[in-house]
Amino acid sequence: MLLLGLQKLTLLDFPEKMAATVFTGGCNFRCPFCHNASLVLGERVQSGEPISEEEFFAFLKKRQGILEGVCVSGGEPTLSPDLIPFLNNIKNMGYLVKLDTNGYRPDVLRRAIEAGVVDYVAMDIKSSREGYARAVGLDKIDVSKIEESAELLMRGNVNFEFRTTLVRELHGDEEIIAIGKWLSGAERYFLQTFRDSGDLISENFSGYDKNETVHLLKLLTPYIPNAQIRG
Asked: Which domains does the chain have, with CATH numbers?
C-alpha cells in the first residue's frame, strides 16, 4: 500500500465515530477541482512510501480502545492491489472501516463488501451521468462502472453515503436534478460546497454560497428526501 498521509484523529470523516484517516496515493481520475492534487499526481506519488504499513499498524495498536474506526481515503484506494488484505488487517485489530471511493472499480468494491472488510462506504458522485467526463477531467469515461457501484451500494448490504462537491463551473440546476432522478431513493446523500484547499489540480473554480446551496438541495430532495448539506 502506498500510504501518503495520516490524520491521527477525526470526528468528521467517519459518521458518529472517533477515527483516524489514512490517505493512499494515485487516482484514475483527474478532477480539476480535486483538493488533494498532491495525492493524485506529482512528487508525493512518485517518491515512494513515506508511511510504512508497519508504522501505520503500530499507530493503530497504540490507539486500540481509544479510536473506533479508520477511514481509508485517497487518492483512490481501490487502485491498490493490496487493499482488501489491508482492510482486513485493520478489521482484525477491532476497528470499524470506512472506505472512500470514486466508484470506478465496482469489482473491487464488491469484493470488499463480500469479504466483510468495510463497515461504511462514502462514494463520490462527481456529476450527472452526462457531465461525468468533464467533472473528472477525462476525455472519455465508462459511466456504467459508476452506475454499477451505485447500484451495488443501494442494495443495502453495507452502510453508505453518496456525496457531491458542488462547483459553480460544473454543477447547476440541470446536473442536480439529473443526479436526483438517477439516484432516487438513496438513503444518505450529502451536498458539500467546493473550497479551494490550495492543492488543486486546476484553477479558477468556485463554490456556492449557503443560499445557493440550499436552492440546489431543494432541487434534489423530491428525489432523495434525506439529502442534506454537509459543512
From this structure: 3-229 (3.20.20.70)
